[in-house]
Amino acid sequence: MCRMPHGGQCFGNSIVTDATDDASKALREVNADEILDALETVSHEVDANWGSESIASLFRDPEVEKLMQKGNTGLDKLETDSAMARRYAQMSFFGKMQVWLQSHKYEIVIAAVLCINVLWMAFELQLSGSDTGYQIGVISAPPVPAESWSTWGRIIEVGDLIFTTFFVTDVVVRIVVLQRSFWKVPLNYIDVAVSAASLFEVTVYHGTTLAVNPILFRLVRIGKLARAIRFVTMTSMLASLQLLVKCLASSSNMLFWSFCLLTFVQCVAGLIVSTLCRDFFEDDSYDVSLREAVFRYYGTFTRTFLTMFEILFANWGPACRVLVENFSEWFSIFFLFYRCVLGFAVLNVVNAVFVQQTMKTAGSDEELAFKQKEKDAQMYTRKVKRLFQTIDDSGDGTLNLEEFSKLVQSPKLKFWMSQLELEYHDLLSLFEFLDNGDGEITLMEFIEGAARLRGGAKALDIWRIETKLEVLFEEVLKALHTTSGKVMPLSVQDACLIYRHMVPVSRIERCSGLWGRCKRRVLAEMADVGWRLKNLNQLTMERINCK
């Protein structure tokens, strides 16, 4: 029984049944010598009447062609740089402003100004803090001479006013130009709030009639730092920051419960230590200085709670030594057990869960995966282009067969090809596949061919080649024993032999790395064989009838 995957067994049974019915008819068997003689006679006629383009047109799948046309239509809709430039030139001033305010260049400008603003605020804080330290005696020398302090104060005021004006203008312009699109971004509300706070600060600072609490004034100035959150919106430039923010957001629930676990354990451990130290604080037999030293770490709940976090995350030696040296050495066992269990086991488990959650978020994010796919494609294209330039000795931008033969002669180039998943031992076949028929391979042909050859055959490709081979097999059988209303008898053994020869062709496709070349050649050769047999059958029947 002839077998074939995907329903091939039923197809083979039907063919054998048809061939048996045809053989049962009282018709004259065709001699093999007559077939060979007819094949030699009509070989040139078939080549003249049927070109490769005509044969290929017979095996075009209309449904697949429609799908390919839809895909090409989607690709055609992508505008090139020149088309976008022409479209931008035809826009009005308002439209150009909308494009500019949402472009990467504008984001770069805002990012640069934000960085300068943060540095300016750091300089202002350094200057004012140094002056305060000089006044209380911590710093011996003033940061600037006393006679020039008023000048520096005016410079700081002018700088703050310039930054405030710039960012307020930025928000107002974006609200006017972008209109509804501006309010669809949640982080833009932060820009509006920060700009309003900056205006309030300027009004309070320069207004003499308003009495405002200094604490509120300090909070307003601190609120200006929230403007730096706008960096998060610049996803095109800060992809890594975007990944970190998404990972933190996705792990917020786990982060909360991890903090709860650590806080609970720290609280219980602190209560135990503070309770054990209570008698030590009240015992007058101990020196007061020793009790004061221990009290600084474990005297109250808040002190003990802070000390337990210090033991877990910071330098735990002093907090442990103050009890071991001044109270009891048995506390060393408690602290060793505490550090091993909580500081090693629990923290490592929490870190591992965070890493797993981060990798899971990074792998499931479609936008990040798309950007990574683009980067991989660009990197692969650069490597293929570099390989092409290395092979091209003449520097004319094309490769002939002589230059292409360097791939076999150079072990380094062969290794390079294997790294690009283009390793292949049949050099001539590889050259024919990459070439469009003119005997030379251009850079675009080399890149496109390398992209098609990369990797193995997909399931869709295998299914298409199997389907076409099944249809081709049926057409060949019809050409063998059905011509112009007359039937040529075909024995069961011949049908099974042909069927067994046709079926493995589709299985070879599963093992072929160059699936595109295999598919093209198999279809072309099988089409050529089918139409040669059809014309051969017609001529043979005519000669037999004449005899």
TrEMBL record:
<dbReference type="GO" id="GO:0005248">
    <property type="term" value="F:voltage-gated sodium channel activity"/>
</dbReference>
<dbReference type="InterPro" id="IPR011992">
    <property type="entry name" value="EF-hand-dom_pair"/>
</dbReference>
<feature type="transmembrane region" description="Helical">
    <location>
        <begin position="255"/>
        <end position="276"/>
    </location>
</feature>
<feature type="transmembrane region" description="Helical">
    <location>
        <begin position="330"/>
        <end position="354"/>
    </location>
</feature>
<keyword id="KW-0812">Transmembrane</keyword>
<dbReference type="InterPro" id="IPR043203">
    <property type="entry name" value="VGCC_Ca_Na"/>
</dbReference>
<dbReference type="GO" id="GO:0001518">
    <property type="term" value="C:voltage-gated sodium channel complex"/>
</dbReference>
<feature type="transmembrane region" description="Helical">
    <location>
        <begin position="158"/>
        <end position="177"/>
    </location>
</feature>
<dbReference type="Pfam" id="PF00520">
    <property type="entry name" value="Ion_trans"/>
</dbReference>
<dbReference type="Pfam" id="PF13202">
    <property type="entry name" value="EF-hand_5"/>
</dbReference>
<dbReference type="InterPro" id="IPR018247">
    <property type="entry name" value="EF_Hand_1_Ca_BS"/>
</dbReference>
<protein>
    <submittedName>
        <fullName>CACNA1I protein</fullName>
    </submittedName>
</protein>
<feature type="transmembrane region" description="Helical">
    <location>
        <begin position="106"/>
        <end position="123"/>
    </location>
</feature>
<keyword id="KW-0106">Calcium</keyword>
<feature type="transmembrane region" description="Helical">
    <location>
        <begin position="228"/>
        <end position="249"/>
    </location>
</feature>
<keyword id="KW-0472">Membrane</keyword>
<keyword id="KW-1133">Transmembrane helix</keyword>
<dbReference type="InterPro" id="IPR002048">
    <property type="entry name" value="EF_hand_dom"/>
</dbReference>
<feature type="domain" description="EF-hand">
    <location>
        <begin position="379"/>
        <end position="414"/>
    </location>
</feature>
<feature type="transmembrane region" description="Helical">
    <location>
        <begin position="297"/>
        <end position="318"/>
    </location>
</feature>
<dbReference type="InterPro" id="IPR005821">
    <property type="entry name" value="Ion_trans_dom"/>
</dbReference>
<dbReference type="GO" id="GO:0005509">
    <property type="term" value="F:calcium ion binding"/>
</dbReference>
<dbReference type="InterPro" id="IPR027359">
    <property type="entry name" value="Volt_channel_dom_sf"/>
</dbReference>
